[in-house]
Amino acid sequence: MDLQRGAGDHRGRNMNDKTIRPGSEQVIKSGIEDSKTIRGTPGVISSGVKSSFIQPSVGTELILGGECYPILKFLAASGEAEVFLAEKNGQKLVVKLYYASFAPKEEVLEKLKSVKHPDIIELLDYGYYQNRFYEVMKYAEGGSLYDVLPIKDVNLLKEVVEEVVNALNYCHEHGIIHRDIKPQNIFFQKLGNKDVAIGDFGISSALHEGFSKRLTKQARTTVYAAPEVFQNVEGKTIIGREVDYYSLGITLVHLWSGREPFEGMGEYAIMRAKIDGNVEIPDDLPTDFKHLV
C-alpha cells in the first residue's frame, strides 16, 4: 500500500501485489469496529459499543496517546488499514489506522521506536484508538517509488539500492525482518525524487537474539515474496534476513521495466516460477544490475 500519496491507482494492479496477512479474508472494511473492548493496554480509548467508530474526515481531531492530530486529508485504504495525512505543531505526519481485525507486531514496533536511521521512515508513536491499532509516522513528501515507474535513471536506481540496503542492514542488525519490500513501500522523503527510505513494517517480524531464522505466520506480497515464504506447515513458515534481499531483487526488475513482474500469472504459477528460478530479467537491464539481481 502506498502510505504517502493517495488511493488513486491507474495501473490495473491485481491481488498478487497486495500484502496478504493471515485471516485477511475476514477484514472489516467498513470502518465499523467489533464489540470487543481491549482492557489493560496503555493508550486504549474504547467504548466497547458496536458500530460506534466514526471514520475520521478532514477537520477531525484525533486524540492519539494524549496528543491531538488534526486530519488534513484521506490518503489511502487497503485490506488492513486506512491512512490519513495529519498535522502536529506545523509538521505533516501520517496516521495509519488499522481495521479492528489487524495489528502489527508490537515487538517490532518497540524496536523501531528505539532505533533511528535516515533511510527508514521514522515511527513516532503507536497504540489503540477505539479498539483499532494506530501508528503515527513521518510523512514522505515525495511519495513512493511506485508513483514514478519506470525508473530508467541508472544513478537514481543505484541510490535506491544503496539506501535500501543500508536500511535493511540496519534493520537486520537490530533483529527486524521487513518482509514486504516493494516499490509501494520505498519512499522519497523529499520532493524531486530525493532521500530514499523504506517504510510500512505492517507484516515485519522480529528475530530473537542469537537466532537467524524465525517461525512465523504466513504473510507476503505474492509478486515480491521469496520462494521459501510459500512453503508452510499449518499456516506457518520459516524466514530469515535473506527474504528481504530477494524482494529487493524483484523490486529492481519492476522499477526498471515499469511493469509488474509475473504480470498475468496466478499465484501458483508465480510460486512455481520462483522455485524453478524462472524469473524473467529485462534484456535492457544494465549489466551491473543484472548481476545484482
Summarize the structure in words.
The protein is α+β, with helices and mostly antiparallel strands and 293 residues long. It contains 5 helices and 14 strands. The chain has helices at residues 106-114, 154-173, 242-257, 267-275, 287-292, and strands spanning 19-20, 61-64, 67-77, 81-88, 91-98, 123-129, 132-138, 176-177, 186-190, 194-198, 205-206, 213-217, 220-221, 236-240. The strands form 5 sheets. A 6-stranded antiparallel sheet has the order 2-3-4-5-7-6. A hairpin with a 2-residue loop joins strand 2 and strand 3. Helix 2 (154-173) runs antiparallel to helix 3. Residues 5-12 and 23-53 have low confidence and may be disordered.
Task: Briefly characterize the structure.
With 293 residues, this protein is an alpha+beta fold.
SSE diagram, text form:
Layout: E1 19-20, E2 61-64, E3 67-77, E4 81-88, E5 91-98, H1 106-114, E6 123-129, E7 132-138, H2 154-173, E8 176-177, E9 186-190, E10 194-198, E11 205-206, E12 213-217, E13 220-221, E14 236-240, H3 242-257, H4 267-275, H5 287-292
Antiparallel strand pairs: 1-13, 2-3, 3-4, 4-5, 5-7, 6-7, 8-11, 9-10, 12-14
Helix pairs in contact: 2-3
